[in-house]
Fold this sequence. Notes:
Elements: E1 20-25, E2 39-44, E3 58-59, E4 73-81, E5 87-95, E6 97-102, E7 105-106, E8 122-129, E9 137-146, H1 148-151, E10 153-154, E11 157-158, E12 166-174, E13 179-183, E14 189-192, E15 195-199, E16 203-207, E17 216-217, E18 219-220, E19 227-230, E20 235-241, E21 245-247, E22 250-266, E23 272-278, E24 280-281, E25 287-288, E26 298-302, E27 308-311, E28 318-327, E29 330-341, E30 347-351, H2 354-370, E31 371-372, E32 374-375, H3 388-401, H4 405-418, E33 434-435, E34 438-439, H5 452-464, H6 467-487, H7 513-534, H8 538-559, H9 571-579, H10 588-601, H11 610-622, H12 626-633, H13 641-646, E35 659-660, E36 664-665, H14 682-688, E37 692-694, E38 703-706, E39 718-725, E40 728-737, E41 740-747, E42 752-755, E43 764-766, E44 769-772
Parallel strand pairs: 8-19, 16-26, 38-42
Antiparallel strand pairs: 1-2, 3-18, 4-9, 4-14, 5-8, 5-12, 6-7, 6-9, 10-11, 12-13, 14-17, 15-16, 20-29, 21-22, 22-27, 22-28, 22-29, 23-26, 23-28, 24-25, 30-39, 31-32, 33-34, 35-36, 37-38, 39-40, 40-41, 41-44, 42-43
Amino acid sequence: xxxxxxxxxxxxxxxxxxxxxxxxxxxxxxxxxxxxxxxxxxxxxxxxxxxxxxxxxxxxxxxxxxxxxxxxxxxxxxxxxxxxxxxxxxxxxxxxxxxxxxxxxxxxxxxxxxxxxxxxxxxxxxxxxxxxxxxxxxxxxxxxxxxxxxxxxxxxxxxxxxxxxxxxxxxxxxxxxxxxxxxxxxxxxxxxxxxxxxxxxxxxxxxxxxxxxxxxxxxxxxxxxxxxxxxxxxxxxxxxxxxxxxxxxxxxxxxxxxxxxxxxxxxxxxxxxxxxxxxxxxxxxxxxxxxxxxxxxxxxxxxxxxxxxxxxxxxxxxxxxxxxxxxxxxxxxxxxxxxxxxxxxxxxxxxxxxxxxxxxxxxxxxxxxxxxxxxxxxxxxxxxxxxxxxxxxxxxxxxxxxxxxxxxxxxxxxxxxxxxxxxxxxxxxxxxxxxxxxxxxxxxxxxxxxxxxxxxxxxxxxxxxxxxxxxxxxxxxxxxxxxxxxxxxxxxxxxxxxxxxxxxxxxxxxxxxxxxxxxxxxxxxxxxxxxxxxxxxxxxxxxxxxxxxxxxxxxxxxxxxxxxxxxxxxxxxxxxxxxxxxxxxxxxxxxxxxxxxxxxxxxxxxxxxxxxxxxxxxxxxxxxxxxxxxxxxxxxxxxxxxxxxxxxxxxxxxxxxxxxxxxxxxxxxxxxxxxxxxxxxxxxxxxxxxxxxxxxxxxxxxxxxxxxxxxxxxxxxxxxxxxxxxxxxxxxxxxxxxxxxxxxxxxxxxxxxxxxxxxxxxxxxxxxxxxxx
Length: 773
C-alpha cells in the first residue's frame, strides 16, 4: 500500500486472536526520490471472541452479598511448569480493581485496572507479557482485588454497579511441545491481604502486620458480564514531586496535583502514620477540607515487623497540594506521586507574558489531574464524574495539549454511546452510574452537556481525521439531534432539556436558558451535517444542513432584534450566537458591538460561565476586537484567569470566585480548585499567542492555520509553539524585535499551512518544510 493518508486500514484477511503481526513503513522524500530504509514494527492481537475466554469469574466468598465491604482480598493459585516458556501471556479483567503478582513480582505498571466503563455494556481487559516472570518448577500468581468504581463509593453514594468485586484471569504459556493454561476457577483460594480497607474517595488503610486469615475456597461468580474489550489509555505514575516546605507535619508540594503520597517510614511494629489531603489551607494554616464533602481523602499505614519501609496507597488517589502527616511512626521522606491516563504530550508552548505561561501550565495540570481513566470534573471531592458539558468545552484544548485519540475517542466516547437512551437522549455523565441495574438520578439531555455527543467526535475529527471513530459515533450523534427535534418541532429548544444547567457558573449574569439551548441545537445540527458529508452520507448531510438553517432562522426570529441585540443581553448570549453563526451577516458587527458594550459595562471584565468562556475570546478576535480579547486574557482583576493565578493558583479553578479577598472561600458544597472547564481558553491561546491551530476545512492537520497576534503593548512580543500532530510536528516561533516582526514555521511531510503574517493583506499557503517570514 502506498498512501499519503493517515489511518490506512488493513485490507487483508481478518486477523485472528493471538496472532503476531509485523508491518513496515517506507518514506519517500518526494515522488521522484528513492525510498528510505524500511522501519519495522509489530503488534499482537488480543482475544477477539467470547469463546476465547475459558476462565471463570471468581470472587472471595467472604465478600459475597456485600460483606466485609471495602476490604480487598487476595486470590491466589500455585502451579508448576516443566520448563521456562517460550512465550507467556496473561489476560485479566475484574469487576472492581485488581493488582497482580507472579512469584512476588508485580505484573505491569498500570493502575486502577481494568478501568471504569459502563459495566452493563463494556468491560476492559488487559494483556501482559509475563514470560520473564515465570520459572521452571513451582510458581505462584496472586491477584489483589478491590471494589474500585464497580462496588465502591462513586460520587455521593456507594455500590452503584454491584456489591462485591470479582476476577477473571487466563494465563497461556507456550512450552516446547505443548501449551500450558491456568484459568481462574474454584480451585483458587482466597485470603485477606494487608490492606484492611480501601476506597477511591474515602481512603486506604494498610496494616503490614494484619493476619491473612484462614484460606477460603474461591467462589464462582455466575452473574452475567458485559462484552470484554481491550483496554485503552491506562493510568500510570507519571511524575514525582518533592515537597517545597514542611511545617508541623503539613507538607506543601507547591503544586495542586492528583495522585498519592509515598512515604519512607520507620518505627516499631504497630507504629502508624496517618495522611490527610487538601488543595488549600485555611486562614489559620490548617488543611481546608470543607470542599471535599463526603470524600474523607485519608490514608493510614501501620508498620509490621520491619523497622523501615516505603509505602504508597494502591487503589486510591487524591486531589491535593498539601498533605498532613500524623502518628507515632517516623517519616523519613514524603513524595507526591502524580497519576494520570498516560497520554503522549503533544504541545510545547512558551511566550513573553509570564501570566499566560502560568495559565498554560495551570491548564495542563488540570487536564493531567482530571484525565484519570475518564475525563472527570474534579479530582478531590465526592464526585469525580465524567460530566459531558465539561468535556465538550475543553476537548479542543485537550487535543492540543495531549494525544487524546485513544483516551477520548476509543474509550470515553464508547462509554458515552453506551449510556445513551433508546430515544436518543444522552445522560449528563459518562460512564453512566446505575444502581445495580437501575439508572442513577443523573438527568439527561441538558443543553451543552448532551451536545458533547456531537461536539467531541467533531473535535476529534478535526485533530485526527479518523473516519472510523467518526463513523462509530455518527449514529449516536444523529439520534441526539433527532431527539431534540422530535421534542421541539418549532426548532427552538424549549422542551426536553433535562436539568438544564445553562451557562453554568457564569458570574453576575444569567443568560436565558432557551437561548443557550437553541444555540447548541443549531451547533449540533451543523456539526452533524459536516460529519455526514465527511462520511459520504449525502442525503443525511443535506437534511442536517437544512435543519441547521431552519434553527438559525428560528433563533433569529425569536431571539435577535433588528438592532442586533440577542435576548438576555448577556456576554454569553452574544458569544454563542456569534460563535455558532446564528446572527445574520448584516447584524454581526452590531451584535459584536453589543458584546463589547456588555464587557465595558462589567468594568472591562468577563462574565461568562462554562459554556460561554471558551468562545468569548475567539469571537472577539473574529469580529475585529483582538486587542480586547488579549486584554481579557492578561487581566488580573476579578473575575479573570489572572485573579486566581496572582493568588497562587497552580491549576484552573471550578469557579471564578472559588476564593476572593472579600469573601474568602465560596460555598464548600461545590468549590473545586482543580477543574479544567474554564481552561477551555487554551485552544485560543495556542492559536493566537502560539500561532497554531488545525484547519477544520482540512482535518487531521492536513493543513494548519498559522496566525500569531503580536501585542507588545500588552507584553505579547514573542511566542514559541510546537504541536506534535497526527501528521508530525508543526511549529511556529515568532518575535518582534526593534519594531520588526520575524517568524519561523515548520510543516511536516504530507501537510501544509495557511500562514497569516501580521499586516499582510492575504494568507500565504505553504507545503512541508521550514519557512521564514
